[in-house]
Predict the structure.
Amino acid sequence: MSKFSLKEISTRAPKDLDKKETKEKMPAILGGLAELQNLLFAESKHSILVIIQGMDASGKDGVIRNVFTSMNPQGVNVKSFKVPTEEELAHDFLWRVHRHVPQKGMIQIFNRSHYEDILVTRVHKWCDDKTARKRMKAINDFERLLQDHNNTHILKFYLHISPEEQRDRLAERIKDPAKMWKYNDRDFVESKLWDVYMEMYEDCFNHCNDVPWTIIPADQNWYKEYSIASELHKLLKGLNMQYPGIKR
């Protein structure tokens, strides 16, 4: 029986949180992120890996656009992991991921990630439970390697939307000309596997939590973006970074 139940976690902002007041805080947070990212880049002692997972239409692209574009693009990289290529399939499942981990001074964003290899692969029975358990151990070791040997700080976010909200957003891709380019027949097929995906995500959270997951209620974009920006700001602020002096 799962120790972790997504059904028990709301997909919406706390009822006592004021939307207007929260949105008014964002410019200061984003400004702070820009300054802290510059400091991270200048000091070059730490690196940041931000992993963003979520169901289709959970708003991964929107988070990247609205939270991270306030920073200097020279210090931020984004990698979207799609269906593995023939070359990638000829290697171990972490090969294509390890190539994109951040060097010191950089923030690296994974739009989907190595977790797809224990999520979608299990939903579609391409990966059995025994193999999945081995991959989970490898993932935990991989993330520990990054932390211990490259001073990489990892934030793992799951964008938690409701199936109702997902249906509305997928339907919007058919009607809104600005979103039609995102339309994919497969998204509707995958949405029918919702319960299986939730089971696989819960198993992932239970067994790959050495670096803890943050579950982000994602039905409301303003709260989702505020939550992720705040978590990143808190992490960067806590590094107590200093600008290096003049190099001699």
User: Anything to note?
Assistant: The chain has one domain: 20-237. The two ends are 60 Å apart (CA to CA). The mean pLDDT is 96.
